[in-house]
TrEMBL record:
Domain of life: Bacteria
Gene Ontology cellular component terms for the protein in this record: membrane protein complex; plasma membrane
GO molecular function: ATP binding; ATP hydrolysis activity; transmembrane transporter activity
Official protein name in the record: ABC transporter ATP-binding protein
Species whose genome carries this gene: Cohnella pontilimi
ABC transporter domain ranges (all copies): 2-230
Amino acid sequence: MICLEKVSKFYPTEAGNYAALKENDIHIRKGEFIAIMGPSGSGKSTLLQLIGGLDEPSFGSISVDGIQLNELNEKQRTLFRREKVGFVFQNYQLLPMMTVAENVGLSLAANKAPKSEIKAIVQRLLEDVNLEGKASQFPSQLSGGQQQRVAIARALAMKPSLILADEPTGNLDRKNGEDVLKLLSRLNKEEQITIVMVTHDPQAAKAADRIIRIEDGEVVGEETNGGNRQ
Ligand SMILES: Nc1ncnc2c1ncn2[C@@H]1O[C@H](COP(=O)(O)OP(=O)(O)OP(=O)(O)O)[C@@H](O)[C@H]1O
């Protein structure tokens, strides 16, 4: 499903190129739930951005769902992100001037789906994340946990084969964090959506099948979560 071969990422800095990722080989199977863990600055978010086609590697190749990201032009990468990947961020990244329903339906509208279809899909998604009744509210009127569930509904709108979640529980209290993890686990199991989640929280990582550890831009180990899976 996801295949990284010798992937490096350099950022130019005043002191020269900084290697945020160094020659990483990573393979993730379809339907896996992966947690990426590692110290601050180890390259976790950079890795997620490369897999999601938000940025390009300096060296190496990445394929997702049989698509070689290196071979896509800018327009094709935008379509890849919109149609294949659902992004979930620590700070939700909802658009504050849009209602919950408009936020969830954003990609569908960008893909020019008919309004009636968007409405029906958005309603179903909001039911799915237990937020029916909040469709016409604005993000600022919702709790953090509710906003994150809106963000997950938005991520699901295009039926992605992959969800990339960067610290999805980082801003949430324990209960809301657990609810978000349960939701991700359910989507993983029931819809077979592959999930790659960056987290600092060992408790959150227990939701995953496998933990990949990164230090200083390199994969340094991994463990399978066998019996621990929630
Ligand atoms: N645009 C950039 N320009 C220069 N350096 C960058 C840029 N983005 C990230 N870096 C550097 O690359 C390294 C990896 O950053 P990254 O955000 O991937 O780490 P992380 O593991 O996600 O960290 P955290 O857990 O703190 O979010 C860091 O040292 C960071 O300072």
